[in-house]
Design brief:
45% of the residues lie in helices and 19% in strands. α9 links the parallel β7 and β8. α1 crosses α3. The protein has 12 helices and 11 strands.
């Protein structure tokens, strides 16, 4: 399907800036002209592309089309650099990546900072589910727990993110006075990032030898997860790098010494986009080598 580049530029600008007026200012046209371009594009595709609001957001079809436009822009910039041409564009290139929140909170942002002249649209999802975004064509790259490459993608092993089961001394005294047993694990409240988060249950199953269903607090924030554990709200699996200092200060303690959970991570990138994303792939692998546990 051939799509008018001016219409795609209007779609990208609206979704990036949030309003038709801001998109019009960036494109040096009137808001009416932007509306006409979007209407023509919707007529061409046969469906709504933008949900009007504050800010405007994409429909599923609009998001897919906008991602395609961003990928084309990135490939064109890569080609221009290879040919020694002026790669300047009217708007920055945006790359959409699926990544787990704990990687963002610990090691991943340093890799992004190593690659200039690019904007990032990060989709936060559990590492066991981030590959789904690649499979749907909604992102160009992802940090996943899946080792087998998604169809059409290259996979790079990164190492493992180490988690420590941690709680405050007061929480341990209250909920585990006789030690960490299957019975106490079944009763003690645990912290859970989201309903996709299986880390606590995986550690419990490895420790207790069977599945248990403890009461849970849902708390979708890596740093608040640590704060909640310090506040004795519950116990949780925290990235080792985030709890190293609280453990040294005595604010947190491992539930059981020497029982970490290592979660293997993989960088997967669309094979079509791989040449253009090679600098980012190298930066991600280098950052992972500095921060993750070798496998």
């Amino acid at each position: 399907m051939r799509v008018d580049p001016d219409q795609l530029a209007a779609l990208r600008a609206i979704l990036r800036l949030g309003t038709f007026e801001a998109a019009a200012a960036e494109l040096s046209v009137t808001p009416s002209a932007v509306s006409q371009r979007i209407k023509a594009l919707e007529d061409r595709t046969g469906g709504a592309l933008i949900q009007r609001g504050a800010p405007c957001t994409a429909t599923s079809m609009g998001a897919r089309l906008a991602k395609h436009a961003e990928d084309v822009s990135l490939l064109e910039s890569h080609l221009a650099r290879d040919l020694g041409l002026d790669a300047a564009s009217e708007s920055p290139t945006v790359l959409r990546i699926a990544v787990n929140a704990d990687s963002v909170a610990t090691w991943f942002l340093g890799a992004l900072a190593e690659v200039p002249d690019m904007l990032y649209d990060l989709v936060l999802d559990d590492q066991d589910h981030s590959a789904d975004w690649l499979r749907q064509g909604a992102v160009s790259a992802a940090v996943t727990a899946r080792q087998a490459p998604v169809t059409g993608c290259d996979a790079h092993d990164l190492g493992a993110l180490r988690y420590i089961p941690t709680a405050s001394p007061a929480f341990l005294r209250r909920h585990f006075p006789d030690g960490v047993t299957p019975a106490s694990l079944a009763r003690a409240p645990c912290l859970t990032f989201s309903r996709k988060d299986m880390l606590q249950r995986q550690w419990i199953e490895a420790r207790a030898g069977r599945r248990l269903s403890p009461p849970c607090h849902y708390l979708p924030s890596s740093h608040a997860f640590v704060d909640a554990a310090i506040a004795a709200l519950g116990w949780g699996m925290n990235p080792e790098s985030l709890v190293r200092d609280p453990i040294r200060r005595g604010d947190l303690l491992p539930l059981v010494d020497g029982t970490p959970l290592d979660v293997p991570l993989c960088w997967q990138v669309s094979r079509i986009m791989a040449p253009a994303l090679r600098p980012l792939t190298e930066a991600v692998r280098a950052a992972a080598a500095r921060s993750l546990i070798p496998r």
